[in-house]
Amino acid sequence: MKSRRKNRKALLLTLIAVLLMGVLSVGDNSPLRTALSALTGGIFSLTAKAASGLSEPSAEELAEENERLKSENASLQKALAENLELRGENKTLWSYFGLKKSAPGLELVPAFVLRRAATDDFGGFTLGAGSDLGVKTNDAVICESGLVGRVVAVDGSACRVATILSPGSRVAVTDGESSDSGILTSRDGNPAITQLPEKHNIKTGDLILTSGEGGIYPPGIIAGTVSELKTDPYDSSVYAVVEPAADFEELSEAAVVVAFSAKGVTKAE
User: Fold this and answer.
1) Do residue 137 and residue 195 come from a single domain?
2) Beta bridge mates, 127
């Protein structure tokens, strides 16, 4: 409010000065003109002082404003999460809320995708949910289609997500048809199941689910479908290329799994 009053004061004084200059531009030298010149100079001086009063905010004021914005952002994120859960009661229900209903031990924090990493070629992004909502590093991230990846960095209001396409990603999975198990890793920019049993029954089209081993990813989350079986030219081992269930480039919202029951979850109908 003080800043607005100073702005109005400076503007008023400037207008008066301009009007007086208009008067001074007419007529000859006279005592009146001399007096008005002195008055105009004084007004310009006052205007300059008023304008100088519009100083930059102090470090303390900036810190207070920053804290206020942080608090407002946290409140908005919490309201967003509550709003998204309410959406689960109507026709736009995210299918992964079905997971929550069938497994009370599964706790989700849904949020919008805030931005994508320009230098990440593997679909990584920043999600608008952070430690203020219970999000932690290595929490699994899912979407309505299935598995997305995991949290690799977190602050109070946001987290950075690495998808299953990212180098170094390792997810214990199982074949929904044959029950063969393996490790889903990134190979040539695509997820692929390695460490398969020598005698396995995996075939193209099989649904791949998380097994829950390792404690990061809840069991029963769809990771994708087998698109191709290949042989490693170096050791002759067979691996299965997987088509991810999630379209990482098109995601606009996802959910962080902040907790889940040791008994696992079941696939939503």
Assistant:
1) no
2) 113, 159
Specify the CATH number for the domain of residue 130.
2.40.10.340
Residue 218 is assigned to a structural domain of this protein: yes
Residue 117 is predicted with a pLDDT of 80
Residue numbers of the domain that contains 29: 2-52
How distant, in Å, are the alpha carbons of 25, 123, 137, 159 from that of 113?
61, 12, 17, 10
Mark whether 111 and 186 lie in a shared domain.
Answer: no
Q: Is 170 left (phi over 0), alpha (psi -120 to 50) or beta?
A: beta
Q: How, if at all, do strands 207-210 and 222-231 pair? A: antiparallel
pLDDT recorded at residue 197: 87
Position 142 pLDDT exceeds 80: yes
Residue 155 forms part of a structural domain: yes
Rg (CA), the chain: 31
Indicate whether 148 belongs to any domain.
yes
Tell whether 158 and 98 lie within a shared domain.
yes
In order of 114, 123, 237, the CA distances from 250 in angstroms are 13, 9, 34
Greater confidence (136 vs 232) lies with 136
**Under 8 Å between Cβ of 242 and 229:** no
For residues 123 and 130, the answer to whether their CB atoms sit within 8 Å is no
Q: Give the H or E element holding residue 62.
A: helix 59-87
Which two three-digit tokens encode residue 123? 């679909």
User: In this predicted model, what pLDDT tens digit does every residue of 91-131 receive, in sequence order?
Assistant: 333 455 555 555 556 788 888 899 998 888 899 999 999 99
CA-CA-CA-CA torsion sign (222, 228, 229, 232): negative
